[in-house]
Automatic annotation (TrEMBL):
The keyword Membrane is assigned to this record: yes
Keyword Membrane: yes
Organism whose genome encodes this protein: Bradyrhizobium guangzhouense
Membrane-traversing stretches: 46-64, 76-95, 101-121, 141-161, 167-188, 195-215, 227-246
Keyword annotations of the record: Membrane, Transmembrane, Transmembrane helix
Name this protein carries in UniProt: Membrane-anchored protein
Pfam families (UniProt xref): DUF347
Length: 263
């Protein structure tokens, strides 16, 4: 999709600058989403539907607070990301397993939903760049795309891990390799930065899920055998430490100028 930026209204974005720290915290958030979602649906036996409703409610409240905020607030932003990835975990499990459409059906349905949101966002706003996320309408599209990308990433992770007995280790290698390719394309090509951002955003979700599996899988399966609540607490602590240590500021994002120059 062409990343032409038609709007000249680029006030300070309400999403953080995309740096290495952004991706580290993003992977931690997706890991927390995996272990937190499984804690509620499996450890606490809520089931996929009830867990999905719980996290959907939390996500709606946080997205509304994010949109009402007048400027970028790191804690609010990352809490909303955690809510979206936790909802994505339970929603993907519900679509794949409870609806009976399987991994292929679930991933295809979510890919269509994500494409529709991005396509509508581009048609109305003229860009799907995160640099434009400074108005309520753009934020609504942004969080819709974020939610579907998180859910799609979960479905892809489950699909790869459970297909051909690849397991979480094989899945982690595949998604890490995919992210390495995206990093290479970012460093050494002029491939659309907007496209690379969304591709990386999707792939970091299943990578985080495999890290979550590593934390709570039994020792004889190569994991650390942490309970899901304990794994969630460890990752939440790591996230808080990262937010305290890694500078958080609103984007302008890397690649924005080059994207604008190509417009």
């Amino acid at each position: 999709m062409e990343d032409t930026i038609k709007s000249s209204h680029f006030s300070e974005s309400k999403v953080p600058e995309v740096t290495l720290g952004f991706w580290i915290i993003k992977i931690a958030a997706t890991t927390l989403g995996e272990t937190g979602g499984d804690t509620v649906t499996m450890t606490l036996n809520w089931g996929y539907l009830a867990g999905t409703c719980l996290f959907l409610a939390a996500m709606v409240v946080l997205v509304a607070a994010q949109i009402r905020a007048q400027k970028f607030h790191p804690a609010l932003y990352w809490a909303t990301i955690v809510a979206s990835t936790t909802f994505g975990t339970t929603m993907a499990d519900f679509a794949d397993r409870s609806l009976g459409i399987g991994y292929t059906g679930g991933a295809t349905l979510l890919l269509i939903c994500l494409a529709l949101v991005l396509g509508l966002w581009y048609r109305i706003e003229g860009t799907i760049s995160v640099n434009s996320v400074s108005t309520p309408r753009a934020e609504a599209f942004y969080w819709g795309a974020i939610t579907f990308s998180q859910t799609l990433g979960t479905a892809l992770g489950d699909w790869i891990a459970d297909t051909g007995d690849m397991g979480y280790r094989g899945g982690a290698l595949i998604f890490a390799a995919g992210l390495a390719v995206i990093a290479a394309l970012y460093l050494w090509t002029r491939v659309s930065r907007v496209t690379l951002f969304w591709a990386a955003f999707i792939l970091t979700r299943p990578l985080g899920a495999t890290v979550g599996d590593f934390l709570d899988k039994p020792l004889d399966q190569g994991g650390l055998a942490l309970s899901r609540p304990l794994a969630s607490a460890v990752i939440a602590t790591f996230m808080v430490a990262c937010l305290l240590l890694i500078p958080q500021r609103a984007g302008q994002h890397p690649g924005a100028n080059r994207a604008a120059e190509r417009a």
